[in-house]
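Running this now, will post back.
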Amino acid sequence: MSTGDLDALVRVTAPNYVGKSRPEIAFGTTDSPVGTLVLAVTGRGVVSCSYEDEHTVFERITRGVGTFIGPDPRRLDPVRRELDAYFAGRLRTFPSPVDLQLATPFARTVLQMMTAVQYGTATTYGEIATRIGRPQALRAVGNALVANPVCLIVPCHRVVEGPGALGGYAGGTAAKDHLLRLEGAL
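Update: finished.
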């Protein structure tokens, strides 16, 4: 999405936004080896690092977080630099804080558990379900991971079905395979 497109989208959906003032929610995109990622940052942290299209993410943030949204490179560029460093193999843990307010309470529990899965390793849906005390909730764990609003930064790609079976991923199985190979987990 170009800056002009984003400005037009913001004018229509966030009429309180004034182009020169600092928005409450910084919004933009970044290109990566696994596709374009839609980023959003609140005062609490990164609320979106998503493979979905900009309009879908923008609407979700408008409904769930706030309407004073706009570009703010001062807040987005540090996240972009972290992603670049990650893809270059220089970053293993993202230092930016995460804002999980777009996730359901159950999904927050699952996603918080993901922070314990270290770079270069993988776990299974069953192991995550067991760790959160819900060993029968495999499908619910999978749904929470697919709906992760902060992909990569909260490393849901590190969960696999089992040996030789990657399982689903919001960015697609090719992206998941790329990320796990980058980290040396495959």
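The longest helix spans residues 73-87. More later if anyone needs it.
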